[in-house]
């Protein structure tokens, strides 16, 4: 059975250039936790004291602390304050990973590479206006001998992608035999990406069942993803994982 223990995950990928101040602050505190400056089980200084020690504003510090709490490094205890978790996630938890890497080893078979007008989903998540021309990729992910996922991925309107992430726009034009998220991740050296994903339970339905060679009433997990650059969405996706797919590692987002 597919493991889907948590409802949502926050992903963050930081390439090291042009980082938002709060991301740099997040990294400083995470590094301090992992190198023992703030030991496991210890209580962080109060917000005013910590902001003074780090030389940052309290609003920026508060946002970074909330992200660290969401990503499992900190816990808030009533009457105590923020404490460092006994088992903080290993370094690298903030990296955005394509589904084919998380489920691997798998191979990606491209079913469709086309352009389409916005649907309700892409209008909402990519903020695509009516009449936009969006790249759409449909792919099946295969394990050793079985289809394990069906992916629908859309890029934002081309002018948006060209403006925010020209390397991603160029890589898309080559239409490689890979998932769109893999293309985005590989094109993002030095580019900060942030993303959210949601997980819900559903049934495959007739068409998706045929594509995955499963009965229409097969239970499945539907994962939705939106990836942003500088707060603007550049890619959105839906992934359908039927019963029998490899277990999917997911971190909790509170």
From TrEMBL:
Report keywords, A-Z: DNA-binding, Transcription, Transcription regulation
Organism of this sequence: Streptomyces xanthochromogenes
| Every HTH gntR-type domain range | 19-87
Q: Coiled-coil segments, which residues?
A: none
Q: Which domain of life is it from?
A: Bacteria
**Does the keyword Nucleus feature in the UniProt annotation?**
no
The entry's protein name is HTH gntR-type domain-containing protein
Q: Which Gene3D superfamilies match?
A: Chorismate lyase-like, Winged helix-like DNA-binding domain superfamily/Winged helix DNA-binding domain
